[in-house]
Amino acid sequence: MNSKAYHLIIALIIISHSLKSQIASKSNITLHDIIEHINKIETDDLGKKNIKKEADILSNSSKEEFANYSLELYRDILKDNISAERIKNKIIKKFPKGILEKSIDLDHVFKDKSLTAEGIEKKYNLFISKYFDSNSNEDTYVDDDPNLKLALLFYNEKNIDKTLEYISKTKKDLKYPHKAWSLVKKLHSDKEYTLLVDILEDYNNIIQKDSVLKSTFTRYIVPMHVESLIKTGKIEEAKLIVNTHLDTEDNLDASIGLLLVNEYKNQKKYNDALSKLEEIIIKKGRNSTLKDSLRSIYVKINNDDKLFENYYSTIENTRIQKEIEYYKKDIIKESALNFNLKNLNGDSVNLSDLRGKIIVLDFWATWCGPCKKSFPAMQKLVDLYKNDNDIEFLFIDTWEKDSDYKTVVQEFITKNNYTFNVLFDDKTEKDYYISNKYGATGIPYKVIIDKNGYIRFKSAGAYLEADKTLNEISTKIEMIRNNL
């Protein structure tokens, strides 16, 4: 074998080995695997060289989704627009009428802002005839569904028949709630209640069948639906929805009930308004807005508010009894681990020194959004019990990520004018000691300890509404105080 042939073989072996070392060249690999691998690569110079190798292999793949991902890598990570353009043309040539070509052509359909809705519809129909035969359904390969885009365009021209026609084409799409949201918001902003009633009924039926969609959209859609029903005179249907949600432990606050109360007030049906508002307070909890609204209706009926406080106290007692029955199932009795932690002032706080008091522990961190959102309600609780020597609140900062977290905590508390007694959890090299010993798997995490040193309640997470936090913690405190 001559020298040239030898060196050629060695070069081919090296190239082959290099190709095999790239994940994109492996057999039975999925796009998900490739994306996961790419996401772990640093985007420094060395990392970009490895990403480029993966992109080159992907661009030659027989699978279009792999080739399309190579285009994304060149355009968005490698910032190489010249190579991206070359690969784009290569993909279109290799996969005629494929995903990429369809997406580009669809963008062109909606690009011309000078066209009327009818003009864009004609372009869209030409697009459909090019890429789909008469027996196939239109793809759902884009986030913004073209049918909903057309629905919005026709709605802007007040062509309601066409708006409804294109909306109806999208309702079987699993992504419909996400795609239709911009149109729903537009209709609501324009007070198009007649249109909304029809759309939101289907919309609501779809989201109730999926737990993720339900948790995402219910708190926005249900109030819109109730409002639309009321505005179109469908009071009985609105009442049915309101009553359903008042009887469930969902994430809706009292606002949907107030929509009905306000309609009763508009119709001068003050007794109906009063009765519904009583029910809302009992089932969804107190707040100052509800109490003020109740007072105004009470005065309308009784001409003065002399006996209002007595009347309100009976409602409050009913609400409290209902909450007590609800929280009884959560009562536990576990010995509370003693701790000795430093607070913001550097003073030691020993749990055992607080024996004889009801103690509320709130585990939190400065990076925790739900923790911080709950703090206005927690400040209200601290203020509520500030003159009560039987109650103590301790806010245990834990799981911090910043090396100088004590300074960050001090600045956060000072900036927000919180009067919390903040303690710092004991931190080892690998762990936070007290939060783990108390069973925290997530924050915010609250623990309520009775006067004898027993844990009586534990709860994780936070409510979206501050008043729910206020009602829950205060009810649990009073349950412990009164041995209920």
TrEMBL record:
Boundaries of every Thioredoxin domain copy: 330-482
InterPro entries the record matches: AhpC/TSA, Thioredoxin-like_sf, Thioredoxin_CS, Thioredoxin_domain, Thioredoxin_ResA/DsbE_sf
Keywords: Redox-active center
Protein name, per record: TlpA family protein disulfide reductase
UniProt xrefs under PROSITE patterns: THIOREDOXIN_1 (PS00194), THIOREDOXIN_2 (PS51352)
Organism for this UniProt entry: Sphingobacterium bovistauri
Statement: the UniProt record of this protein carries the keyword Nucleotide-binding: no
Pfam families in UniProt: AhpC-TSA
